Amino acid sequence: MAEISKEQVKHVAHLARLAITDDEVEKMTKQLGDIIKYAELLNDLDTDNVKPTTHVLDLKNVMRKDEPRKWIEKEDALNNAPDKKNGQFRVPSILE
């Protein structure tokens, strides 16, 4: 991969709405270049027998089963409503 340029650093800083000085551009250009070189080392790894994973940890779904259960009746829910009309909750309007 080609090395990162100062113009690319300035462009990314502009997109991120970051105000950076010329000294910071120099420093970030070198640092980002080092990061890219380090990441390119991964291209040398033999990954032929490595199974693809979606996560490095063996996570399991910890959510409860979705089972039907009895819920309160509509009238019971509306009994606690401070304002109701035609079997529905009434709330203050937020749109004009």
Provide an overview of this structure:
Residues 77-96 are annotated as: Disordered. Belongs to the GatC family. It comes from Aquibacillus halophilus. By secondary structure, the chain is mainly alpha-helical. It has a domain at 6-44: Glu-tRNAGln amidotransferase C subunit, N-terminal domain (Histone, subunit A). It is built from three helices and two strands, in the order αααββ. It has helices spanning 6-15, 22-40, 74-79, and strands spanning 84-85, 88-89. A two-stranded antiparallel sheet has the order 1-2. A hairpin with a 2-residue loop joins strand 1 and strand 2. The radius of gyration is 29 Å and the shape is elongated. The mean pLDDT is 89.
Features:
transferase; ligase; Histone, subunit A; two-stranded antiparallel ribbon; elongated; glutaminyl-tRNA synthase (glutamine-hydrolyzing) activity
Present the secondary structure layout.
Elements: H1 6-15, H2 22-40, H3 74-79, E1 84-85, E2 88-89
Antiparallel strand pairs: 1-2
- If strands are numbered along the chain, what order do they take across the biggest sheet? 1-2
Morphology call: elongated
Relevant CATH superfamily of one domain: Glu-tRNAGln amidotransferase C subunit, N-terminal domain
Percent of residues in beta strands: under 5%
CATH architecture identity of one domain:
Orthogonal Bundle
Biggest sheet overview: 2 strands, antiparallel
* Alpha carbon gap, first and last residue: 55 Å
* CATH class annotation of one domain: Mainly Alpha
Q: Calculate the mean pLDDT score and round it.
A: 89
- The value of Rg in angstroms is 29 Å
Helix-strand makeup class: mainly alpha
Catalytic activity: L-aspartyl-tRNA(Asn) + L-glutamine + ATP + H2O = L-asparaginyl-tRNA(Asn) + L-glutamate + ADP + phosphate + 2 H(+); L-glutamyl-tRNA(Gln) + L-glutamine + ATP + H2O = L-glutaminyl-tRNA(Gln) + L-glutamate + ADP + phosphate + H(+)
Family: Belongs to the GatC family.
InterPro entries: Asp/Glu-ADT_sf_sub_c, GatC
Subunit structure: Heterotrimer of A, B and C subunits.
